[in-house]
Structure to design on (197 residues):
């Protein structure tokens, strides 16, 4: 029986999921709201959950077809190939955007407290010195394709008067509150189908 070893693995996965969820809930009760944003594992998992699930579903047809004892007929091979290509088309752009955003912001820390009028950006542990009056403009880019896996990937480009450009991506946090905070700065809004920086 092939499924005899799958059941214990599934049970362990469910138990781990419940324990981790309960631990996160308990720690959330005793923690205060943070105003410091970094690319955390939880944020990355939130963005990557559906693309990775689709990729796993698409690649799950490869081993049975490739390792099948009997010769697979051309129809099975064709259907498997179409399914893999379809799932790669769904999840691939989100995975590429995630890698790009991670390359841009994996060493970035955002300190954002609108109640205290505080906005600070740190790159490689060094503060990028600027005030709100130093902002020449803001470019807010959101994805037009709302029903895709990459719809949650957007970015905010801060253009400073001295020519520096700071890019903050959705890998750090939801960017809409930050865009509202900077509403008095000249803002250019764009909505491409794919938010490549």
């Amino acid at each position: 029986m092939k499924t005899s070893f799958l059941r214990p693995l599934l049970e362990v996965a469910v138990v781990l999921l419940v324990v981790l969820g309960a631990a996160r809930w308990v720690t959330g009760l005793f923690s205060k709201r943070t105003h410091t944003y970094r690319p955390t594992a939880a944020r990355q998992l939130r963005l990557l959950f559906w693309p990775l699930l689709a990729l796993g579903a698409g690649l799950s047809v490869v081993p049975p077809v490739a390792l099948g004892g009997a010769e697979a007929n051309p129809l099975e091979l064709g259907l498997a190939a179409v399914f893999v290509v379809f799932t790669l088309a769904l999840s691939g752009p989100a995975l590429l955007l995630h890698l790009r955003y991670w390359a841009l912001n994996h060493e970035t820390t955002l300190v954002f407290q609108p109640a205290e009028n505080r906005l600070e950006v740190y790159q490689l542990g060094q503060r990028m010195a600027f005030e709100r009056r130093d902002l020449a403009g803001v470019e807010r880019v959101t994805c037009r394709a709302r029903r895709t896996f990459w719809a949650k990937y957007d970015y905010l480009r801060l253009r400073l008067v001295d020519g520096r450009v700071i890019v903050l991506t959705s890998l750090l946090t939801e960017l809409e509150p930050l865009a509202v905070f900077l509403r008095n700065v000249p803002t250019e809004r764009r909505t491409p189908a794919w938010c490549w920086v």
Notes: The beta strands are 36-37, 108-113, 118-123, 126-128, 135-141, 155-160, 165-169, 187-190.
